[in-house]
Specification:
about 475 residues, Spore_V_R, alpha/beta, four-stranded mixed sheet, Stage V sporulation protein R, 19 helices, globular, SpoVR_N, 9 strands, three-stranded mixed sheet
């Protein structure tokens, strides 16, 4: 605390901002704030967590981020991890005004994470102590490096991280295995929806026929959770290798709501940091002005000096939408939307014609000669263009179609659902990774970017 004549510190302002947030009706788990140097903040940003399983790909991301940062294209004000408690990291080099704004922004994230249904569902499965869990997984991986050697462990991590977004978010994190025999209960989790579904007319399991039981096919239906399937059904995978696949999958479950609610979440945090600063009458005028300038830099639609943006700023779009919703429908409606929606429902239901026109949103196309032109201003096209990168966790729709009697693996790309083909060189590289851990023949049926049918096959791999 400060004494007579002392200047207020960030801790003083943070305490009063948190009290104001509670007074305004915000509801959040406790937040632990840490001031960290810039190099540590960059490591958090590229690794995704302060302590995480080490892998060469994170080093590549680190170099890429440093280049962007030195060119002035990237600046990190904070990194926040939802949980109970939440953990937030702020830059030591930030000004007092910037970190005051960051404090208010983080409280907005914490409010969103506690009250949004998708965050609540996934946190109940993946746990609310991600930092401790991640550190424990990193320790297990270090033991694997020491026991099995860098080459073997990195080969498994190559495959797992190449597939890290290929999970089934409609299934629970801890799900039962498939039944061994046809007619046995399906391997869906004991959630209320599936229990009600099973009781619908015509959904009862058929009476068992006479004769010996018939072994069920693997999988009994196309399986999109590639990490889960490989972890449990790869013929020759060792326990430590399965542990790596399941660890990567568990972290993917934790990050899924952050990915799926990015526009809502960043907009909600930006709305609340703006409101908290506006109503924080205890802030000195010069600090308030500096914080508001930082706010404007965060939520502006395009880079300084530019008059047109071809990439979307989720802070700007989300902030504008929440202000629009609260002005038209009130805070109670906004809180209902916050609880019930993800970005798909948010954009499709609440990005209206008025906002599209005001924000000058459009769909553009770039030609091979480098020319770029506006292709569409229709609101439905704009909504779907915003959401397209978010479909299926941003990953191609790949499913396990069949596991052969010889242990071979048949994968299928649902390119009709995807709406696009695969980049074949990248797909071939991922197939090589998968074949090295599956250790039997692996094939992928897909189309290329021209729509031509292709089958990518990998010979039997192995470590």
């Amino acid at each position: 605390m400060t004494g007579p004549g002392d200047s207020p510190t960030l801790a003083d302002y943070a305490e009063r901002i948190e009290a104001l947030a509670v007074e305004l009706g915000m509801d959040f788990h406790p937040v632990h704030f840490d001031l960290v140097p810039s190099n540590f903040m960059v490591e958090i940003a590229v690794y995704g967590l302060p302590v995480r399983m080490r892998h060469w790909s994170f080093g590549v991301r680190y170099i890429h981020h440093l280049v962007r940062s030195h060119m002035g294209h990237s600046r990190i004000f904070e990194v926040m991890f939802p949980g109970d408690p939440c953990h937030a990291f702020m830059l030591e080099q930030n000004s007092l005004a910037e970190n005051t704004l960051v404090t208010a922004h983080v409280l907005g994230h914490a409010d969103f994470a506690k009250n949004n249904a998708l965050f609540a569902r996934f946190m109940s499965m993946a746990g609310g102590h991600i930092l401790e869990q991640s550190a424990a997984r990193a320790h297990r991986l270090d033991l694997a490096f020491a026991t099995h050697g860098q080459e073997r462990v990195e080969a498994v991590l190559d495959a797992a991280l190449a597939l890290e977004t290929h999970i089934d978010v409609n299934q629970p994190l801890h799900r039962p295995l498939f039944p061994d025999f046809a007619g046995a209960p399906a391997g869906r989790g004991p959630d209320a929806f599936n229990e009600r579904f099973a009781r619908l007319p015509g959904e009862a399991a058929p009476a068992p026929a006479g004769g010996p039981p018939v072994r069920a096919p693997l999988p009994p239906q196309p399986e999109p959770d590639l990490l889960w399937f490989i972890a449990h059904y790869a013929p020759d995978l060792e326990d430590w290798e399965r542990d790596i696949f399941l660890a990567v999958r568990e972290e993917a479950f934790y990050f899924h709501p952050i990915f799926s609610c990015q526009i809502m979440n960043e907009g909600w945090a930006s709305y609340w940091h703006a409101r908290l600063l506006r109503e924080a009458t205890f802030l000195p005028h010069d600090l308030y002005v500096s914080a508001v300038k930082a706010h404007s830099d965060v939520v502006r639609p395009f880079a300084s000096g530019q008059q047109l943006a071809l990439s979307l700023n989720p802070y700007h779009l989300g902030f504008s939408m929440w202000e629009h919703i609260i002005d038209k429908h009130g805070m109670d409606k906004a809180r209902q939307i916050c609880r019930e929606e993800d970005d798909f429902g948010f954009i499709r239901n609440y990005l209206d014609d008025e906002l599209v026109e005001r924000l000058d949103l459009f769909v553009y196309e770039s030609r091979k000669d480098g020319d770029t032109k506006i292709a569409n201003r229709d609101i439905h096209a704009v909504r779907e263009a915003i959401l397209a990168p978010k479909f299926n966790y941003g990953a191609p729709c790949i499913t396990v179609n069949k596991m052969g009697d010889d242990g071979s693996l048949d994968l299928r790309h649902d390119y009709l659902r995807d709406g696009r083909g695969l980049e074949l060189p990248q797909a071939e590289k991922v197939m090589d990774y998968v074949a090295r851990v599956w250790r039997r023949p692996v094939s992928l049926h897909t189309v290329d970017f021209r729509g031509v049918m292709r089958v990518i096959s990998s010979r039997k791999g192995g470590l």
